[in-house]
């Protein structure tokens, strides 16, 4: 049984004071999440403070990115070990905003994924096609390529701890979510691809949908058997909206 996973990606939002207040409101609004796993990803600067709020609660912490090396001359970088030390259990990797604004390619993402696993964090690997790629009928091929390069050579033991977030680029922050049907068709394709390489281990990988998930549409995605959760951007900055999305998961 795959436990539903709802992740709030706060992106570049929240001072420390704002992050503490938002995390506390989410803690109260979510209450007992039951079988669902709830994770928030504040900006790096607020993680330690937010840890104080969520420690001992069912809410977990994710980083929005992680570097591929543990230590050394990498000015500005944050390593998976430091993120583990500060209380993170997950790291979002390969987000399309990292790919676009920070020139992250598949090779970089693959290195980060291995480093994250080595530090004992669970990667949430983001994949997704651009609008033009979908129009050309290449959505599945693009996602398959991203998946294959990020996960190449991964051991079957490492795979189940990894989650995949299907986030079509055109659906992020636009209010134009994918249809639940298209999202679950992509999730099925992803699981088939994982199963072709890793066999039974693929069955425990959680596949999330992200891109304009809201309290209004969350039920459509989370009600699909092929989707095990959601990666939520904008709507995760509102405690009640985010809690409503959590509760929409089975
Ligand atoms: P929105 O929910 O704001 O569309 O963002 C999705 C996302 O990028 C989550 O990582």
What does this protein structure show overall?
By secondary structure, this protein is an alpha/beta fold. The protein has a single domain, classed as TIM Barrel (Alpha-Beta Barrel), CATH 3.20.20. Helix content is 41%, strand content 15%. The protein contains ten helices and eight strands. The chain has helices at residues 16-30, 44-54, 80-85, 96-101, 106-118, 131-135, 139-151, 180-198, 218-222, 239-247, and strands at residues 5-9, 37-41, 59-63, 90-93, 122-127, 163-166, 206-210, 229-232. An eight-stranded parallel barrel has the order 1-2-3-4-5-6-7-8, surrounded by five helices. α1 (16-30) runs parallel beside α10. The two termini are 12 Å apart. The structure holds 1,3-dihydroxyacetonephosphate.
Describe what is shown at a glance.
By secondary structure, the protein is of the alpha/beta class. Helix content is 41%, strand content 15%. Strand 6 (163-166), helix 8 and strand 7 form a beta-alpha-beta unit.
Bound molecules: 1,3-dihydroxyacetonephosphate
Number of strands: 8
The CATH H-level superfamily is Aldolase class I
Low-confidence stretches: none
Strand order of the largest sheet: 1-2-3-4-5-6-7-8
Annotated CATH architecture = Alpha-Beta Barrel
The major beta sheet can be summarized as: 8 strands, parallel, barrel
Give the SSE string: EHEHEHEHHEHHEHEHEH
Percent of residues in helices comes to 40-55%
Structural class: alpha/beta
- Tally of separate helices: 10
Shape: globular
Termini Cα gap: 12 Å
Mean pLDDT level: 97
């Amino acid at each position: 049984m795959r436990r539903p996973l709802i992740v709030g990606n706060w992106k570049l939002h929240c001072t420390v004071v704002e992050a503490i207040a938002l995390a506390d409101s989410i803690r109260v609004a979510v209450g007992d999440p039951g079988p669902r796993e709830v994770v928030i990803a504040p900006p790096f600067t607020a993680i330690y403070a937010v840890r104080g709020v969520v420690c001992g609660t069912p809410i977990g912490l994710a980083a929005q990115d992680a570097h591929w090396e543990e230590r050394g001359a990498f000015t500005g970088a944050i390593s998976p070990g430091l993120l583990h030390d500060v209380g993170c259990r997950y790291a979002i990797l390969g987000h399309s905003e990292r790919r676009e604004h920070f020139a992250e390619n598949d090779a970089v993402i693959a290195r980060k994924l291995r480093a994250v696993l080595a530090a004992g964090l669970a990667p949430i690997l983001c994949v997704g096609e651009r609008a033009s790629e979908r129009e050309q009928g290449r959505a599945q091929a693009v996602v398959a390529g991203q998946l294959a390069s990020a996960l190449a050579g991964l051991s079957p033991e490492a795979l189940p701890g990894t989650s995949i977030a299907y986030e079509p680029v055109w659906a992020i922050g636009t209010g134009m979510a994918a249809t639940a049907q298209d999202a679950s068709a992509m999730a099925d394709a992803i699981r088939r691809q994982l199963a072709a390489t890793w066999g039974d281990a693929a069955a425990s990988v959680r596949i999330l949908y992200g891109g304009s998930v809201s309290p209004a549409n969350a039920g459509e995605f989370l009600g699909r058997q092929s989707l095990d959760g959601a990666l939520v951007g904008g709507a995760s900055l509102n405690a009640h909206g985010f809690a409503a999305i959590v509760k929409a998961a089975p």
